[in-house]
Records
---
Amino acid sequence: MTALTALPIVGSAAAATKRSSSTLVAYFSRSGNTRVIAGLIQRATNADMFEIRRASPYPEEYLATVAEATRERDENIEPALAESLGSLAGYDTIYLGFPIWGETAPPVIRSFLSRHELSGKTLIPFVTHGGFGLGNSHAVLRKHAASAKFVDGFSMEADQERRTMNTVLAWLKDAR
């Protein structure tokens, strides 16, 4: 267990009964890059934290996850979430973190936005990507959270998984 998993994370039951902050950090992370940033934001702002998780987790294997997310994107699927926060009435500001998948926000982010009322909330994205930038993720956020006040957030290249995979595959190719 890492120190990051020990961070206070608001679960759906706790969120419904007690909040300690008017700021929420909600994030989705596959490899951990976005989780690290979420933890930094949470500690710096003393915000509540919520991990967005798909009801049935994505495959462990990277390329299988890419294929599944591509199918969801292409078929406009909003997968079921493991948990929901219910009402976000107690929050004024929501930091929303996610990696860029296929030049857009992952399908679970669309699910999160569709299932939560964001009218009047300030939405601040923080995004990790593998070198291709934000894609159309801001357009997705604006579409699915049209009544929120959208603030340009933070983005960072964090492509260790892809870089590792490419480095190993190149090595294997040369080793044969």
Note: The chain is about 35% helix and 15% strand.
---
Amino acid sequence: MTDPFGTSLERYEASPRSRGVAFVLAVVLGFFGGHRFYVGRTASGVAQLCTLGGLGLWAFYDAIMIAGGEFRDAEGRRLTHWDPTEAESLTPPMLAEFERMRAELDELHERLDFTERMLARPAAGTPEERS
């Protein structure tokens, strides 16, 4: 499915799994991969179980990713809702528009950076030659 501008909306689909539940599981059972089993990522959950959460580093990283909203379930959908009963607050077209605005802001930042570098560069020649 795409929006009117041709952006794929599947990229913005939210997972039905709770971000809050996944975070609690990551903190409590992160060494055993409990949060990964919860979101359906069983292969990496088994790997995390066998390595004790990558000796804690992998489990800590996952907890940060979940808290930041960047953790994804087995289908690649981002865990966005803290409350398991929470309705989706941002629709896919809204998220697509935020992505476009972010791209425009990045472009403006690049232009501003270029302009600042051009203005900071000294003029060619000595002051006597410019007179």
Note: The mean pLDDT is 80.
